[in-house]
Design a protein that fits this description.
By secondary structure, the protein is an all-alpha fold. The protein is built from 16 helices and no strands.
Length: 449
């Protein structure tokens, strides 16, 4: 084992989950922090139009691409974690080199498409004319450095799959500090505005990509990455894509539904867009915690499944679900009680704060009902079961959310109508996951006995 790797196939489950969870949540926090700093700086020192440009349509399009690729890297993470749990180091190495090759190829394709098609996507989202230029500048600079985003996500998922969530955390802390310094330099000192924020983001992500790649090239044993050996292993690539593509599509559908909702919000004007951008950053606190639990249980289940420890798999799922439920209740309470001062971090505009507070009060109380969707889908992904969970998520959350906007909004035209669609779809999706998980796990382990 490499330094910093925890043996998650042994020991007390809740302790091992926490040991694995905290570096992930802290890493996600710092990743979110350096994204949040962008919006704070442009919102405070450039204006609410800049805040809406960075955090509105452009932010949703960035989430679409990064979310899809993060879903794809989960395929590599699951495959590597299963081979690691089975102590099959030959296939661990093959999985790493294949994942890197795919990251490089995909990044160049998405970079070209993103730069060329950014204006088209922004128009599709009904982005207001006064925000088009700023949103376009942000997107094109961001897409020009998408390789660094993909490489870091790939390398981090590999390290976590092998039980090492700490080094990705350390690299994110370094890059978060660097991003803050560069934001201040480019925006406050150089006066580059939105362009300065996006340049700072790309440069800091380049450093994170370098650090995680360096860690793998200096690793011993199964985790050793040799740059000259980066290439595709057909069988490994097929396994990674079998898990990764459905997960990526699931994430894409989330983003597409959010893009459609963003387009609906755009019609209510700049204040509504700015409020949604500010709320979105607060809302991300819960989702980064939820995502960290999802990553933790996927890796935990993957390794124990590879090691044939089926009872440990079952027990870990319920332990993790209990932990996320308690956390969701706590986060909801904090956001409800302190919503006004928290939103005030991003803007001082009175009308924007009023709209943002309404959003918090409708959405935050219902975070807890999303627990089964996150934990059960993560656990099923860890054992390689991705198709049905993907279908449930796409139908129960994404398509139904789109239908809600299309049908309900004309009947009752208002921002609150859009917001209510979120808890409704969370509830229906979670009910479906509870039913499917109970059926799927009834004879779990017998299929590999």
């Amino acid at each position: 084992m490499q330094p910093g790797q925890d043996q998650i196939t042994e020991g007390v489950i809740w302790k091992q989950l926490l040991i694995f969870f905290f570096p992930i949540i802290l890493g996600t926090f710092f990743q979110q922090l350096y994204n949040t700093v962008d919006t704070v700086i442009v919102g405070r020192f450039v204006g609410k139009e800049a805040l809406a440009s960075v955090g509105g349509s452009a932010g949703q399009l960035v989430n679409l691409v990064v979310g899809f690729f993060t879903g794809l890297t989960s395929g590599a993470a699951v495959v590597v974690s299963q081979f690691w749990g089975a102590k099959d180091m030959k296939n661990v190495r093959a999985g790493i080199h294949t994942a890197y090759a795919f990251s490089i190829a995909a990044s160049f394709l998405i970079m070209i498409l993103g730069i060329l098609l950014a204006p088209v996507f922004l128009r599709w989202m009904d982005t207001p004319g006064e925000l088009m230029r700023g949103s376009l500048v942000y997107l094109r600079i961001y897409y020009s450095g998408i390789l660094f985003v993909f490489i870091f996500n790939t390398g981090s998922s590999i390290l976590r799959a092998a039980g090492d969530p700490r080094r990705p955390l350390y690299y994110l802390i370094v890059c978060c500090v660097l991003n803050i310094v560069l934001d201040i330099f480019f925006v406050l000192i150089c006066g580059l505005g939105i362009a300065g924020v996006s340049i700072a983001t790309v440069l800091s992500q380049a450093v994170s990509a370098f650090l995680v790649t360096r860690a793998l090239t200096h690793a011993d044993g199964g985790l050793h990455l040799q740059l000259r050996n980066i290439g595709f292993s057909k069988g490994i690539l097929k396994s990674q894509l079998y898990i990764g593509i459905p997960t990526g599509l699931q994430s894409t559908m989330y983003s597409i539904s959010n893009i459609i909702i963003q387009a609906a919000i755009n019609r209510f004007g700049t204040d509504a867009m700015a409020a949604w951008a500010a709320f979105w950053k607060l809302d991300a606190i819960f989702w980064m915690i939820s995502s960290a639990f999802g990553i933790a249980i996927t890796t935990f289940v993957g390794q124990n499944y590879g090691a044939l420890k089926y009872q440990r798999v079952k027990k870990s799922v319920w332990v993790c679900a209990g932990m996320q439920t308690a956390t969701a209740i706590f986060v909801s309470a904090i956001m409800i009680v302190f919503c006004r001062p928290l939103l005030g971090i991003f803007t001082t505009d009175t009308h924007v704060l009023k709209i943002g507070s309404m959003m918090v009060m409708i959405l935050a109380p219902f975070y807890v009902i999303f627990t089964p969707t996150e934990i059960f889908s993560g656990a099923l992904r860890g054992i390689g079961n991705v198709m049905i969970p993907t279908i449930i998520t796409i139908c129960g959350v994404c398509l139904l959310r789109i239908a809600w906007v299309v049908i309900a909004l004309p009947i009752r035209h208002g921002l609150s109508t859009i917001m209510v669609g979120y808890p409704v779809t969370w509830m229906l999706s979670s009910v479906a996951f509870i039913i499917y998980y109970a059926c799927r796990m009834r004879g779990f382990g017998k299929d590999r006995s």
